[in-house]
Amino acid sequence: NGKPLFEDVQGDIQVSFEFFPPKTEKMEETLWESVKTLEPLGPRFVSVTYGAGGSTRARTHATVERIAKETRLAAAAHLTCVEASRAEIEEIARDYWAAGVRHIVALRGDAPEAGKAFQPHPDGYANAADLVAGLKAIAPFEISVAAYPECHPDSADKSADLDNLKRKIDAGADRAITQFFFSPECFFRFRDDAAAAGIAAEIVPGILPVSNVAQTRKFAGMCGASIPIWMDRLFEGLDNLPAARQLVAATVAAELCGQLYAGGVRHFHFYTLNRAELSYAICHLLGLRPAEFAA
Ligand code: FAD
Fold first, then answer.
1. Which residue CA neighbors atom 21 of ligand 1 most closely?
2. Is 111 in the pocket of ligand 1 (CB under 6 A)?
């Protein structure tokens, strides 16, 4: 309707930020700077991913604990079923509970070798729905699960995928966070289909601010997300112009979030890739201010 996209933002949004556990001291520094930059925005929670095959178990734990200890943020730990027995999962979950962590992002995970089908551990959980039920039996965790607006590659079709999401919610999950996507219509359709399938839990869009299309394409190929052709065109010729690339990235992600906001979305989950700038800028455009500046 020709109206500026951000004219009506009220700052009435909630956000959460996702990080991955750092591998080196330098990466740890970057992560920590990002956490400190984003903290004043008062996210509902920040989450820390769990590497393929449980490879980051110790690093995920250390990062989550450090956030819980050194910030006022609510920290959520991602946890997968990959190569873990139920007893191992129980030990990890109890350690988190003892460390004051009350929120788990419960996932099935993928086979450690790319392209191979997921095989449950013989004494482990078969999928995320089973993991949710197992965690709930251990302690009253808040639980988030994954959702796929463009369908998970292992699902026969969209309705099987929604049935699976419903099983996860029925097992006790509090909300679903989506895989990244680039079309607001795709999210709105998924939200409507989920409601029609009887899923009442909140569905939070996962926002990936893209500044490297080639890397995103590689990742998207593995998880069933599609990259629109226009996005390649937008980033054409910017390989050696990082500042321009950041501006384009912020514009694309802000436009997506503005349209989601106009469609009623009030909670956004950001895949930060451990960098604060893009996520911070988008939150700002959506009207969010650090507590000291809030009205
Ligand atoms: P599930 O929901 O268990 O199932 C995946 C698919 O398999 C479903 O779509 C379903 O249709 C099918 N399926 C499952 N059970 C059955 C059944 N009984 N019968 C028939 N079909 C079934 N991965 C990591 O390794 N670490 C992370 O930290 C991580 N964080 C993530 C965070 C978010 C927000 C998202 C969206 C994904 C994340 N992932 C992570 C990726 C995730 O592990 C993969 O997408 C994985 O392939 C599926 O995990 P899931 O929890 O969605 O699985």
1. 155
2. no
Per-residue pLDDT for 94 more than 80?
yes
- Calpha distance 32→178 (Å, rounded): 25
Average pLDDT of span 261-265: 96
Identify the residue whose C-alpha is closest to ligand 1 atom 30.
49
Taking residues 83-96, report their average pLDDT.
96
Helix 57-70 and helix 86-98: axis angle, to 10°? 20
- In angstroms, the CA 64 to CA 75 distance is 6
pTM passes above 0.90: yes
108-140 burial string, b = 16+ CB within 10 Å, else e? Answer: bbbeeeeeeeeeebeebbebbbbbbbbbbebee
**ipTM for the complex?**
0.96
Q: Ligand 1: which residue has its CA nearest to atom 40?
A: 109
Active site residue 18: yes
Q: Ligand 1: which of 19, 108, 135, 174 to mutate, most ligand atoms within 8 Å of CB?
A: 108
Overall average pLDDT of the 137-165 stretch: 96
Residue 254: what residue type?
A
Q: Which of 63, 127, 159 to mutate to test the pocket of ligand 1 (most atoms within 8 A of CB)?
A: 127
Q: How many CB atoms lie within 10 A of CB 274?
A: 19
